[in-house]
Amino acid sequence: MKAYILLIILIFFPFTLYAQNITFTAADNPNDDGGAIILKWIAPASIPEMIISRSIDKKEYIEIARVTPLLKTYIDDENIEDGQEYYYKLSALNADGEIIQSFTASAIAKAQWFNTDKIPLLIITILLGSAIIYFIFSARKGKRLYIRKISGLDTIEEAVGRATEMGKPLLFVPGIMDLDDMQTIAGLNILGHLAEKVAQYDSTIHVPVCRSMVLSTAKEIVKEAYIRAGRPDAFNPDSVFYLTDDQFGYVAGVDGIIMREKPAANFYLGAFYAESLILAETGFESGAIQIAGTAMPTQIPFFVAACDYTLIGEELFAASAYLSKEPTQLGSLKGQDVGKAIIIITLLVGIVLEIFGIHFLKDFLTTH
Amino acid sequence: MRRQIPLLITFFVGTLIIVSEFIPHKPFGNLSTSLEGWFLIISGFAIILGQLNLFKVNIVKISRKAPNWPYYVIALVSFSVMVICGILWGTQQQPGLIPYSDKMLNFFGYKPFDYIFKYIFENLSATMFSLLAFFMASASYRAFRARSPESTLLLVAAVLVMLGRTTIGSTLTGWIPDSLGFLHLPNIASFIMKYPNTAGQRAILICAGLGVIGSSLRIILGIERTYLGGK
Questions:
Q1: Which residues pair with B204 in a beta bridge?
Q2: Is A136 inside any structural domain?
Q3: Residues of chain B positioned with their CB less than 8 A from the CB of A178
Q4: ipTM attached to this prediction
Q5: Which tens digits make up the pLDDT trace of A320-368?
Q6: What would the pLDDT profile of A163-199 be if each residue is shown by its tens digit?
Q7: B230 to chain A: which residues are within 8 Å by CB?
Q8: Domain of A83?
């Protein structure tokens, strides 16, 4: 009898060992638009493989995946209907591929109306948005706002004047990205102000572009600038022209223009990649005044090295507001400064909390 | 009306995109992706505008015999050759209007479009890219001249990083005992890249992010109208 008991224990011992250590849960995948169920398990790493199967009636299970214990989670988003209850079975296999234990769990998928992972982003958006809107309205009411000088932008008029005196054109490069990049839009906003000055001084401007959408927008902006300056007849539609979508083809084209036309001033304002230094160095060789601006951290050193003035990061986005001198636009810059203050305070508080071993803020900002 | 309607569309779409960032539920969840798809479709059509502009500008310059006009002829011929080859014989993936004989394919290895792309275009692009090395040297020479405390600091940091990233750096400081490992040039280079450099880059990125938010709000609220051609 004892021998039988011992035999039974020896046979079932491995199964009981696995069974004791495995937990398996199924739940709606959070913060999504429905159609997904998340399965989680904790199982000993010694289990070679596990099978996940799914059923809608608890009777007929269909295998959907083979996983390992270390994977720990699996998101099932294949043909999942919201509101329908799905039953899952997690079957642990032994080295011979035989099922030694199975666990079941069920869940119903549904879509969420709010993404709780984005609470910090929402807080930052509300704070920043409120600060910017508050300062815009303050400026509208006549509150005087101090904005620091940006030398690169103050030089625009000087550069246009120089070009007029020399009888040479100006060159404006709005970067190599399309209109879906905010840097391109920021660059084009500056183009509007620059083109107005060009029209007033009766100078000429070349705007080679490498995206068709930028072509239409830039053309419209330059045309309107000439109209604003009261010189619509002086607008040359061919001053804004398309070269190519290819990065280095575009660089070759612009470099050719720089070397042939020898512009008096070159403006590189937008999103740039490897072409930044090739353009800026060619411009330097031609002896032009060069003003650059980008938010690409990797390209800023190149512009700093090769250009006379560089708008760094946020200065590019502030440029249009700075040049317009409109109180409402300047107010928005003040709001951005408040945002910066909030971020600096958060960083300092975070550093102090981390020093004292309190990880609440770091966890809140990083886990979301 | 010409200005008001685009401003209203901008306000509506901009607000919708912000709201959809926080709502995963349909139809908000996929809104951003759908609009990106729309953008791609529109930009696909806009390419025709670009090509027409390229043709027009170059033809005008050639007909007026503008200075350096032969360059514009080369540009137009290159453009036309690529378009014609692409349409007639297609590419490796896409068949063209005329079947390309296996004999020619075996001889050249590629269809005409792919052949020109691989053996002319790619090499020209690589040539332009490789100019970067020389420009980097000349720009570094100017930037690293020790004219002020800031440029001296730049020079010192650059020399340390350059030495630390090459084998000569390891050789020069290899004799320093491990207890003073922080003085090894590769370690100094790694420190500079990991801490001061990363901190500087992140500061720029954070400020640029705020700038993007500020600019976006100005555009959504209709305060910034330069992109519409207005002031």
A1: none
A2: no
A3: 39, 43
A4: 0.89
A5: 889 888 888 888 888 888 888 999 999 999 999 999 999 989 888 886 5
A6: 999 999 999 999 999 999 999 999 999 999 999 999 9
A7: 224
A8: 2-108
Beta carbons of A318 and B226 less than 8 Å apart = no
Q: Which among B26, B56, B213 has the least Cβ separation from residue A111? A: B26
Chain B partners within 8 Å of A277 (Cβ):
132, 135-136, 139
Which two structure tokens, joined as six digits, stand for B218? Answer: 């100005």
As a three-state string, the secondary structure of A300-360 is HHHHHHHCCEEEECHHHHHHHHHHHCCHHHHHHHHHHHHHHHHHHHHHHHHHHHHHCCCCH
Query: What would the pLDDT profile of A14-71 be if each residue is shown by its tens digit?
Result: 444 445 578 999 999 999 999 999 999 999 988 999 999 999 998 899 999 999 999 9
- For A128, the closest of B54, B136, B213 (CB atoms) is B213
Domain holding A13: CATH number?
A: 2.60.40.10
Q: In angstroms, what separates the C-alpha of B102 from chain A's closest C-alpha?
A: 31
Say how far apart CA B12 and CA B192 lie, in whole Å: 46
Domain CATH for A295: 3.40.50
**Residue A188 in contact with residue A222, Cβ under 8 Å?**
no
Q: Do A212 and B201 touch (CB under 8 A)?
A: no
Q: Could you tell me where the DSSP H helices lie in A22-84?
A: none
Helix (H) or strand (E) holding A289: strand A289-294
A307, A339, A362 — which closes off a domain?
A: A307
Is residue A322 situated within a structural domain? no
Number of independent structural domains in chain A: 2
Average pLDDT value for residue range B164-187: 91
The count of C-alpha atoms lying within 13 angstroms of the C-alpha of A220, restricted to the half-sphere facing its C-beta, is 15
Same domain for A93 and A224, yes or no, is: no
Instruction: Report chain B's mean pLDDT, rounded to a whole number.
Output: 90
Distance (Å) from the alpha carbon of A352 to chain B's nearest alpha carbon:
18
Put simply, the answer to whether A115 touches B24 (Cβ < 8 Å) is: yes
> Do the chains contact at B139 and A277, CB–CB below 8 Å?
yes
Q: Which two tokens stand for residue B148?
A: 């002020």
- Does A305 contact B140 at a Cβ distance shorter than 8 Å? yes
What pTM does this model have?
0.86
Chain A's closest residue to B57, CA to CA, is A238
Q: Which residues of A touch B71 (CB under 8 A)?
A: 256
